[in-house]
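the two lines:
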Amino acid sequence: MNSSVIVFPGSNCDRDIAVALEKMQFKNQMVWHKETKLPKSDLIVIPGGFSYGDYLRSGAIAGKSLIINEVIKSANDGCLVLGICNGFQILTETGLLKGVLLRNKKLKFINEDVNIKVINNDTKFSNKYKKNQVLKINIAHNEGNYFTNSDHLKELNNENLIAFKYCNESGDINQSSNPNGSLENIAGIFNSKKNILGMMPHPERMVDNLISNTDGVNLFSSLLN
Amino acid sequence: MKFSVTVTLKENVLDPQGKVVQNTLQSLGMDNLKSIRQGKYFEIELNDNDPQKAEKKVDDMCKKLLANLIIEDYKVNKI
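prediction for all of em together
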């Protein structure tokens, strides 16, 4: 499977995701944001970081960059797109995913391993997970507080477009297991065609027991399945 | 031709920064303070002599980049 990782000035998880993809046997290429053509890709990843120093709003400037036009075109043609952390913020700024990521409710940057629950495991991104499986995945963000309008929230629930929700170790989804104030504890969502996933947690940091755990591995093996 | 643009969070969107500023001012004894919303301010200069055309262009800038209309409102003023 061919993957492309888009790199912006200020991206800082681009190497991590490349290592994870290569470990999982993806043929990966890094693509600088000024490029106007994408290499042939089955998967496009928009990595985490602080593209353009989070100027204006997180992801706002990157969301208007040259390569993004190609990403939008490919996404509309059905190419798989994964946005992690700042990548999720960029996807909402492009309009490929609806909603927005506000500042964390308590105004603090959060860097910790949290529990998330797999809500929809019937997608290209999550088929190797069990439904309701609880994962431990790192989050590291200042703007991860997902917000959207009530019509879209209904659509997310009715069409099963919520990928992951923050929960506690036993899988309970409540206010105390919500690290950043996200609406309904949402940690990741799909677009209506389910070929685009945006998520705040970092699965690429969870692919090796030596440094963390392997709870992120199945996201990549799902894609290869 | 010069314009100012103010971008603020919509009323129903939580503005934690504004809230913290408000609480701090209240703790400084500003007791008639009712509410504070924090926003962003831009000064934009255009090479355009037609005020209507120029304002339309600034409006377009707000919609395309300066404001995220899901959570923010904007106001344009000629200065």
